[in-house]
Each structure stands twice: as C-alpha cells, then as structure tokens.
Design brief:
The protein has 115 residues and is an alpha/beta fold. The chain has one domain. It is 14% helix and 33% strand. Strands 2-3-7-6-5-8 form a 6-stranded mixed beta sheet. A two-stranded parallel ribbon has the order 1-4. A hairpin with a 4-residue loop joins strand 2 and strand 3. The chain is globular and about 45 Å long. The relative contact order is 0.23.
Length: 115
C-alpha cells in the first residue's frame, strides 16, 4: 500500500526559506495550536528563521500526517547557559526552525524525537 502522508520538502525557496515547514505550521494550527510569534529572522547575519508555537508539537499527529526528509528533525532542548528555557524544536539543520514549549513530564535534555 502506498504511503499517503504528505512529503515535506528538504528546504524552502529563496523567496520563502520556511515554505517547506509551512504545512507543519498549518497542521499544528488546525489541531488547536497557536502561533505566538510568526516567522521572523533571529540572526540577520546568517539569515536564521524561527516561528514560535504556543503549545507543544502534536508528535503523533505529525508522524501520521507527514513524511519528513532526513534533514528535518524534531528535538528537545534542555536547560542551557544564559537562562534559556527547555523547549521543543523542529528544524532543517540549516536556517529554519519552529520552537514550542516542552510537554509536561518530558525530560529537559537535548534529544532527538523520532518522526
């Protein structure tokens, strides 16, 4: 049987570097999540983009809805110097990422979450 999940592209376009992750954001919003901060450049020198969600990612729904390329990862980030709070992130390993809070009970360590 063919895999009918939507394939996420490995990268965006020059005009829209986050275009490949826009379907993930749209899905999260349709599942009840909210955008706290829309796409913005976090580092003008390197051109890093980020979007922040209000609630944790819907991991199981993401797995059942999308096929992700090897470079797009979902991960947790633990406490770091400078007071950075633990969070979840999804990124393409280069310049584009989505951040969200950790779910209650999730260990506050740096770890990849299988997609």
């Amino acid at each position: 049987m063919a895999d009918t999940r939507l394939l996420i592209a490995a990268s965006g376009t020059e005009e829209s570097p986050h275009a490949h992750l826009d379907p993930v954001v749209a899905a999260e919003v349709s599942w009840g999540n909210r955008i706290v901060r829309d796409w913005y450049i976090t580092d003008w020198h390197f051109g890093f983009w980020d979007l922040r969600l209000e609630r944790p990612f819907h991991v199981e729904l993401l797995r059942s809805t999308f096929r992700f390329p090897p470079n797009v990862k979902l991960f947790t980030i633990g406490h770091h110097a400078g007071g950075q709070e633990p969070k979840m992130g999804m990124g393409d390993g280069r310049f584009v990422g989505i951040t969200a809070p950790l779910p209650q009970g999730r260990p506050t360590v740096d770890r990849e979450i299988e997609l």
